[in-house]
Every structure is written in C-alpha cells, then in structure tokens.
Amino acid sequence: xxxxxxxxxxxxxxxxxxxxxxxxxxxxxxxxxxxxxxxxxxxxxxxxxxxxxxxxxxxxxxxxxxxxxxxxxxxxxxxxxxxxxxxxxxxxxxxxxxxxxxxxxxxxxxxxxxxxxxxxxxxxxxxxxxxxxxxxxxxxxxxxxxxxxxxxxxxxxxxxxxxxxxxxxxxxxxxxxxxxxxxxxxxxxxxxxxxxxxxxxxxxxxxxxxxxxxxxxxxxxxxxxxxxxxxxxxxxxxxxxxxxxxxxxxxxxxxxxxxxxxxxxxxxxxxxxxxxxxxxxxxxxxxxxxxxxx
Amino acid sequence: xxxxxxxxxxxxxxxxxxxxxxxxxxxxxxxxxxxxxxxxxxxxxxxxxxxxxxxxxxxxxxxxxxxxxxxxxxxxxxxxxxxxxxxxxxxxxxxxxxxxxxxxxxxxxxxxxxxxxxxxxxxxxxxxxxxxxxxxxxxxxxxxxxxxxxxxxxxxxxxxxxxxxxxxxxxxxxxxxxxxxxxxxxxxxxxxxxxxxxxxxxxxxxxxxxxxxxxxxxxxxxxxxxxxxxxxxxxxxxxxxxxxxxxxxxxxxxxxxxxxxxxxxxxxxxxxxxxxxxxxxxxxxxxxxxxxxxxxxxxxxxxxxxxxxxxxxxxxxxxxxxxxxxxxxxxxxxxxxxxxxxxxxxxxxxxxxxxxxxxxxxxxxxxxxxxxxxxxxxxxxxxxxxxxxxxxxxxxxxxxxx
Lengths: 294, 402
Hints:
The structure holds 2 protein chains of 2 kinds.
Chain A: H1 3-34, H2 41-57, H3 63-86, H4 94-116, E1 121-122, E2 131-134, E3 137-140, H5 141-163, H6 165-175, H7 177-182, H8 187-213, E4 215-216, H9 222-235, H10 240-259, H11 266-280
Helix pairs in contact in A: 1-5, 1-8, 1-9, 1-10, 2-3, 2-4, 2-8, 2-9, 3-8, 5-6, 5-8, 6-8, 9-10, 9-11, 10-11
Chain B: H1 3-25, E1 33-35, E2 48-54, H2 61-80, E3 90-96, H3 101-113, E4 118-120, H4 125-129, H5 132-138, E5 141-144, E6 164-166, H6 171-184, E7 190-196, H7 201-215, E8 219-226, H8 234-242, E9 247-249, H9 254-266, E10 273-275, H10 284-288, H11 290-293, E11 296-300, H12 310-320, H13 326-345, H14 350-358, E12 362-365, E13 368-372, E14 379-380, E15 383-389, E16 392-399
C-alpha cells in the first residue's frame, strides 16, 4: 500500500465524511433540543437536492445561488414539518413523535415520487470538470467545493450557536426547556429556528451530493440519512462537534474498510465500529456521562 | 428511553410500515382481454388458445408491452397465412401481471383455466418463478422471452423443469461472451471485476467472466463488491486502479454502473470498461457523461439496427407505428418457437407440444440460429457487443456461442 494510495483514500474519506457530517448536524441539533430523532431529515436532504436540481436545470442558476435557494426552501420546509407534524405531539410520548417522523419520511419520499416520478435525474455540468493533480493526488473540483462548503457552514454554525442571541437561546432550551421558558425565551421560536438551520444544512448536503454524484432520485435520502444518524450517535447525539467528528470518522472508516480489501464489509464495518464505540462509551465519542435527572 | 432503543424500535417500525405498504399494493386482477386476430377462426377447426402473461403495467411495463407486440406480430402473420394444422388459427389471450410475482401467479392460474396450450411470458425472472408450479401441475408449457436466470429451467439439483422453456440466453453466457470479447477484441491480459452482491444477476455474470478469463490463461487482478444503490465507488476504484488492470468488468444495472464509470474516469482510469445487458436501457450516458462513456462496451441480446433484422423492424413499424426494441424481437421469437413446435408436433396435445419444443434443435429465427439443448431447455444464440461512441450505443460485433 503506497503513501499515494493512502493519501488518495484519505481524501475520498474526508469528502464522503463531510457530507455525512453536514446531515448529521441537523439530526443532532433537533435531538439536542426536543429529544426527537427526526427520521425525515434524510428526506429533507432529498428535497434540497431536487430544489438544487430544479434551480440548475430549469432555471439555469449557477451552483452557489442554487444551493442558497435550496437551503432557504428547506428551512421553510423544516419549520412547516415541525409546526404541522411534531409540535402537536410535543406533549405526547416520544414513541408517537418517532412514528410521526417515520410517517413524514415516507410522505416526503413517496410524495416526491408522485410529483416528479421515480426516474433518476441528472444535473447539467455545474462545476467545471477540472481535475487537479497535486503531487500524486487527483483532486476533483467537486471535492474542493464539498470540503470548502462544509468547513464554511460548520464555522458559521459554530459562530451562530456560540455568539448569537438565538444560539444562546438554543443552548438554554437544550439544557432545560422549562427553565428557559421561565427566563422569557420563546421556546417555540427557538425550536423552529433549530429546524430551519438543521434543514438548511441538510439541503446544502443534498445539493452537494446531487452535483457530485450527478444524480437525484426520490429515495436518495434513505442511506445517507441512516448513515448520518449513525454519525450523530457515534459522535454523541445532541453535541454539535460530535456530529462533525462522527461524520468524518464514519466516512474514513467506510473508505478504509474498502481500501484494505473488504469492500463487502464496508457498511458492516462502519456499523460494527458504531456498536463497539457505544459499548465502550455509550454516550458517543464526545458525550459526557450525565446523571439521569430524576 | 435512550437513542439505541429508539433506533431498534424505528427499524421495527420501518419494517412494519413496508409490510403494510406492500400489502396495500395487491389489487384485484383485471379481467383478461381476449383478442381475436384477423381471419375466421371457426371455419377451419378449433382456434388454438395461447395465454400471454405479461408485464403490461408496473415497473417492467416497457418490457411486457414490447414483448406483447412482438408476439402478436408473429401470431397475426401465421394466421394470415392460413394458420397451422390444416387451418387452425392462434387465439391469444392477454393477462396483465402488473410486474409483480404474485399477480403473475394468479394470471397463470386464470390462463390455465382458459384451456390455453401454452403460456408466453412473463418477461422477468421473479414473475416466471411464481408460475412454474402451476404450469407443471396443469401440463401447460411456459416460454419466457427474457427470463435469464439459470434456475428457471434447471433446478438446483440439475434436473430440468419439463414445462419451462426460454427464448433468451442465460446470465452465465453473458459472462463468457464478455470475457471472450475482452481477450479477443481488447487484447486484455489482466482484468478487474466489480459486482453487486445483492441478487444473483451481477455475481453470476462476474463468476462466469472470471472462469472464462482465467481458463484462457489470463489473470483477474482484483475483485471488488458493492451493493446496488451505492453511489460512492471511489474507494474500490482506487483499489482497482492500483492493481492496473487492462479492462474492468462491471456487470450490474445501469445507475450503479454509470456512477462507477464516472468516478473511474475522474480517478484517471482511461482503459476499457465493460458491462452486461443491464447497460442496455436507461440514461447511462446522462449520468456518466458522453466523454466518460467512450471506450466502454456492453453485452446485449439483439442489435435492432442489425441489417438482418430490418424486415422485422419494418413490419413492426407498420403494425404499431413505433420502432421495436430487443424485447420485441424476443417476443416475436418466443411466439415463433411455439408456432414451430405446434407444426412439428402435428397436434396441440400438451405432451406433444412439450416434446416438440424440447427437440426444436437448431431453429432459424430472426436474430440468428438458436440451438436448443434438450437437457437444459436453454438456447445457444448469438449475443451482440455494443460500444458507446460519443454517448450513442453502436454495434461492435456479434459473438456466436462457443
């Protein structure tokens, strides 16, 4: 195994992991705030990918505006989903909300199939097809875009969560919903904002996946959605840096399981690592052991 | 409740939901639509009923409709010439199996009840599997135009299914054809294989490619697996690239393979890439890009622009106002096989027709000579290799069975 081969695979792993991380952020933020595993999240990503496809193919927009439109559309979609489907169930059992999330996931998948047919669509050439040769490495223009966009969005998210009023409110609600409400924080608005931000990140990931792999289809959100969920749990669900770390760890694991010649075990290997991590550290890589509140 | 429990619960829920969704799909079967072809059936003897159990709606409707048109063309032609067995005409009865194995079973049951001497179709392997028991119990022959799975005609223990026949070559043969093409036409000394581990199709092709390739003294330098629906192939492509094969064989379906080709070209692999008939339809070029598809080849059943097929193409065009495809040709050949067998048998007795089909031997059909093996009920017939040139599938060569 040459150094060049390892470096190339490392790059592949980082670019794949970045996408998982972007989707995982939405899972983890929503879980952090209302302890709901939003299974429709992967499908929000799919809607984002379709919006991006529509913007580039029909409206002939370039990549960045198309991604921004998709992010905007999906943040509205995320808020609507929360208001319509999850908010009425906030006081009922967690199982009820979970089932609703699964229902919403099917609704988005098959609703989209009904609207645009199950046919696979392809993007026009959005990126220049340039391939850079950096030393022995081949780097696609798309790889650079994926990694740059992910880093920018993550930095932006960190700034928002750490330094803005809404970010502080989100952390407060996540820490203790009742106490936050007593302090005058509008919990409903904070939850909506969380869904908006999470869905916008998913939309960005959707457009990136769509453009990079050159296809969109209504069921494209299922596998990345599940993997991102795993990434979120792996990093410690509810913890934002955990989602980033989990995503990268998952992407790199998948790539290196394939690289050492066990491509059949690619998914199995990734999930095995998840199981081991959770046995050793049940709260995830960055999770802290908290006492159960009584 | 902790997240892990949630995960398990949700998996169960997903399963439950899919069961419910699937259960909801079964709708009552539509009534059969008897079609009386031109000519007076009653005057010269009883008409011969033939059942067409085809995918007329659903995901494989494209295959079924093309197949049906081809079959009708063959029957209408023989009826117009005065029929068989001193003026008996063929009367075909269509039943829609909705591209579902369960519906195919009930369509077969219904057709058997209509006193058909044979059932033509279904087009797809899974739908044929659901009909084997019924036709065997009722002594009715079934000929599938395009069910390529080897298990349809020959059981696991090597015994032949006496009432099942087919008009197409089987999956393993494609692997042989591809390997011989790689050696003879591409001059490959080394090859890498990447195949889909879900389902029998891709693995079967890969296995037979490898066997043929290695039997010729060449080396398979790398084998990689993936699962249908994967979109990221970069890690396995990197593995394959480092083994430096002369050719890559990727016998899966078009979406997976198009992603594979795109990413292989991006990773700098410029050599030939080959696939099976799974590349024959769909928007491969749209996904992979016309430039990237150059220097790729696939095996297919028929090449519709083949000069020897042009009479058929014209007749089909006149009858239906549209161009035929490979499945139309297979449909036509399926019906021709039955017509020939009835002529040879001299009767429509089930056992006589069955035995005549089994002993068809060399049968000259529109796409070339088909040689039937009575031991396996499989025809040996020509395959074609298509090459993608600037985004268009072009005829490369015909490969005769060895």
